[in-house]
Amino acid sequence: MLIDTVLFYIFAAMVLSGAIFTITRRSAVHSAISLICSLLGVAGLFLLQRAEFLFAVQIVLYVGGIMVLFLFVIMLVNLDLAAKARQFNRAWAVGIAAVAVVGAEMAWFLYRGRAAFHIAENGGAGLGSAAAGNTEMIADSLFSEYLLPFEIASVLLLVAVVGSVVMAKKRI
Amino acid sequence: MPVDLMPASADLIRLLPEIVLTLMGTLLMVLAAILRKRSSNAYGNLSIAALLAALGAAVYAYTRQGPAFGNMLVVDGLATFFRALVIVVGILTVLASYRFLRRQGAETGEYHALLLFSIAGQCLMAAANDLIVVFIGLEISSLASYVMVGYLRDDKRANEAALKYFLLGSFATAFFLYGVALVYGITGTINLSGVRAALTAPESCLQAGAGSVLCVQNWLAPWPIFLGVAAALLFVGLGFKVSAAPFQIWAPDVYQGAPSPVTAFLSTGPKAAAFAVFLRIFMSAFEPGGAAWEPLVWFSALASMTIGNFAALRQSNVKRMLAYSSIAHAGYVLVALTARSADGAAAVMFYLGAYAFMNIGAFAVVGHLAGKGERYQDIEDFGGLGQKQPLTAAMLTIFLLSLIGVPLTGGFFGKFYIFKAALESHLVWLTVLGLLNSAVAAYYYLRVLVMMYFREPSQAAIEAEPLRPGLRAALLVSAVATLFLGIFPNWVLDFSNKSAAMMK
After folding, report:
1. Do A42 and A51 touch, CB atoms closer than 8 A?
2. Residue in B481, B134, B63, B67 with CA at minimum distance from that of residue B276
3. With an 8 Å Cβ cutoff, are A167 and B136 in contact?
């Protein structure tokens, strides 16, 4: 139990410090690397909750795919000038208001605990036996109940690929 | 545990139109690699064949009505009506595209493949009974149309239009997705039948997909605000797709910048599919919470009509004018939705059917007259078209009269049923304001007519090439359908009434 708690604080520290560095670093590359650190922390939190599938997806998709894309863009676009320019944010008033609202919301939820939520419960029906692992359960429902969305998602990806090729090739 | 993953044949038949369209779309791309010819009518011919096959499949699927894939899809009258509508829109778009693409030197297999994929996505939306299927269908349809808007990449306006459409469209989709997440949070299911059951019968247990029993607890009673927020977020996503105010900002720029046949398609196909989803979500799933979302739709209907019509008055570019008019027409359809009755739903279906034909026809004429590089889009360019090309002018006259809502055209009965449904639901103010709006609208449509018949021929009218067979077929079909709906409305109306009654 103790080791869980220790790990939780380590991962939480990763998430928070990564997030803070992401928005405070001047260099875009440093920001991106801090964001990777933050996302890895989230992956660790998933693992602590025994959500192995989400853990793997978080690493492959966010840390792997999306962050590599970010870095590509950063390297392609010349950001040196932007890093030297004075950083400013005109919308700070809106930002403070938003933070205040979210802060009040979180305080309310922390104060009330579970009673603050009225989320419909699925009852766990349709997810197979609890003895099977988390990943197996997701696979079962993905390939039986959600077979159609799963399959047509591939059409969506095909359209995206064809579309980007049409947009990028030399002559139409 | 070994499960038989092969879906039942009845399920596959109910998905047949989408299967046909996707297969043929893929085939077109393979063919483009084999043919290696840049300009060929083969692509267009093949897409027409694919769309006709899909139309047959949609009708065949109607003979085997019912849910498919564990209630993910449902094939009923509503689904079949909108499937057939978007497929016919596709056929007319392809017919109007032949000459247009040839003139811009941009006839490729990809254009037609993307069109077929987009229509497949819209068919999915029409038949979807689960928010995740709605979402994927919406994305397939939208992604393909973003690319089609920017398809003529050397055109600056098209580039700007595509980027704008893409960025704003992505935001709108994100809103929709938030709405879906909230719906799941409230009801524990994203199946629309399940949502409806959760909102009507508290603590009910219903038979959900794959034979599992889903017990949905009704938490709504203490939290009606959640339902309102969810409905509002879904409304933002769908309102964007149908260009309803206050989410209409993108429409004029995108409709003006996109190639004319694509504009014709955009203003009818995706709009019809999004309204199908509207009907499914708001008239069946969210119907029990109707009082909560009615003011929202009421406001949006009035704003769309007013903004669309008054902005259209001041336009000199015809494509832009038609874009604003399409915003106004979305407003009329929203009036029928506000009515919250089976009659209203039937009016929505009838109106969208009539609107598809007249609007595609109008945009096809605009694209025909615009010439290479779409130079002539100004209202002055229509001067003297009546002398130079009497047939084209006559058909544009039919479309514009129908857009005004003159008797004997489909547009008249469309408006008539909408305002009748609104009056029956005691929406007197909305009806009065809507009728005033359509009177205002007559002015800018008539301006084009006056230009065509009472002015000397402009440069555009002199240069315009004779009507090619493809475009002529598209115009004739649209004109005949517009008149048919205006003279024998019962045929379509009976079907939409029957479907609307079954929708619950």
Report:
1. no
2. B134
3. no
CA B277 to chain centre: 11
CB contact under 8 A, A159 and B217: no
pLDDT tens-digit profile of B437-452? 999 999 999 999 999 9
CATH 1.20.120.1200 fits A1-76, yes or no: yes
Distances (CA, A) of B363 to A66, B10, B383, B460: 40, 39, 17, 16
Instruction: Return the residue in B4, B31, B104, B136 with the most chain A beta carbons within 10 A, the one to mutate for interface testing.
Output: B136
CB-nearest partner of B222 from A118, A123, A145: A118
Contact A122 B214 (CB under 8 A): yes
Structure tokens at B416: 């008539």
Confidence check on the interface: ipTM exceeds 0.85, yes or no: yes
Terminal CA-to-CA distance of chain A, rounded, Å? Answer: 62
Shortest CA distance from B118: residue in chain A: A159
Burial degree of A162 (CB within 10 A; 0-12, 13-18, 19+): buried
Return the beta strands (E) in B131-174 as ranges. none
Please tell me the distance in Å from B139's CA to the nearest CA on chain A: 7
* B140 vs A contacts (CB less than 8 Å): 152, 155-156, 159
List, for residues A67-126, the tens digit of each pLDDT value: 888 888 888 877 667 667 776 677 888 989 999 999 998 898 888 877 766 666 554 444
Domain ranges of chain A: 1-76
Separation between Cα atoms, residue B391 and residue B260, nearest integer Å: 20
pTM of the model: 0.90
